[in-house]
Each structure stands twice: as C-alpha cells, then as structure tokens.
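Study this one:
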Amino acid sequence: MRKVSLNIEKKTYLPGDRIEGLVTVSTDEYFECNRVVLSIKGQERSRVVRGSGDTRRVYLEKKQHIDERIELVGSTGMPAGDTNFPFSFILPENIPHSFQGRYGRVEYKLVAKVEVSWAIDPKTRKKFSVGRKHEIPIAHSVYSNLDDDDARLLSVQMPSDVIHLGRDYPIKLMVSNEVKMRGVRIELIYHEFVSPKGHKATKKQTLAKLVLDELELPRQMWIDATIHTQGEWLLPFKTELIETYYKLKVTLDIAWRIDKTIWVPLKITHELSQNDEKDPFAFGFY
C-alpha cells in the first residue's frame, strides 16, 4: 500500500496569504522514490459551445494564474509507516478570487505526487478557495428618464446606485399622463459575459422582480417601490476572460410588444467590514 494525503489549515485564503501544510506519504513497506513534489495551480477558463452533433464546436480560453512546483524531497527511501513533509508558500497578491459560473470559472488546487520508477506514481489533490477583500464602492444618486417624441413617459429615481445585498433597495417611479400602458416591471438582473476566441455568450438571470399593475400607478406622482435582495448573491467579478455585473431593468409594459425600458448599472456590496473575507463558494445561484 502506498498512499499520499495532503492537509492545509483552511479552506479559503486571501491573495498574499501564506499557505502551510503537510504532505504525508503512507506505506506498509519500504520503497524508493525519485522525489516528492507539490504543485500549486490556479487556472481561469471561459468556455462556449455552439451547435450540436456534427456541427458542435467548443471555444475555450485559459489563463494560468499560478503554476508552481515545490520539490519537498529528492531521491530517497520511504520507510514503512507515515512520513510527513511540511510545506509553505505565499499566494501572489494579484490573483483573482475563486469563481464558478455558467460559462467561466477560476479554480485553485494543490497536487502532491510521489515519483516512482517503474510504478504508478501515488498522488492526491486538494482544492482550495481564494477569497476577496471586501471593498465598499462609492455611491451616487440615480435619476433616469424615458422619453419618446419629446414626451417624458417614465422617471426613475434611487438615492444610491449601490445595493447592499441582504437589504431592501428603494426605488421611486413617476409615470406620465401621456403613456398608455398595462403596468411597470422592475427587475434586478445578473449578467455573466465571456468571449472565448471572440465567440460571445451572456447568461442573464433575473434575481428579483416586481410587477406593478396600471391601477397601482397614479399618474404624475412619485410612488415608492422596493426590491428585496439576498445576502447569498454573488458580488460582481471581472478578469480578462470573465465579467459579471448587475443591472436594474425598469420596463413600461405596453401592448403590441412595444415595451420601453430603462437600464441602470448598479454596484454591489456585502454587509462586511473592510477586512472581512468571503468564501466565494458559500454563495451562488447556479
């Protein structure tokens, strides 16, 4: 029996953190090995599939954020029982945090391997997460109008363009006397965008929706509406291969498919202190 195990202190680290742990080689009888190595890998990838069957094409782009190897010991004899090899390394400061989406992902892992001549190399792997330092975006008030032929149909106002996930988000609306409509739809939409090899793909997901019927909308008066958010939603993410972001979509529901829409880009933050870390795999909607 020859087995390798790998232990680290935590599941999630921040860029610049030191990772320390042990590689343990277990065997029931003595054997000789060429070396014991630990690989640290961090890869980002975006992937889009077009077509099906004979016309199916896969477009893929990859980027290595970490690709390092540490030799823990050179050629040596491995005695029966357990032999421990401690290791320590520092994560680069400029790596992105872990991410798992529909078309893209960023993953980190450790691979420990015992290289043996004329035999299968015992090895093991362990994934770990890279978190992100919480940043508080600068807030600005929002005032947006929907005009048609010099007539103002709809006005939207928010005290801030920053959504604090887990809090209610207030919105003010005013509908003109001039517009004939069935109501107003307010949607908070999460976008994931990739473009491997120039082949663009976007996933849109409506996370919150509010429908106001015409009878609930007095004309030429500001009315209050509220979008409910959840603390489990993901923060925006942007790298060379992947981008995610949030937008508020406010739509005048007009008959005969001539809806008119206001799009408002939004900033997103969690209710954390400046130095808190967030496990990127603790939340999500995939």
Q: What stands out?
A: Residues 273-278, 281-286 have pLDDT under 50 and may be disordered. The longest strand covers residues 57-73. The chain has no helices and 23 strands. The domain at 2-133 is CATH 2.60.40.640 (Immunoglobulin-like).
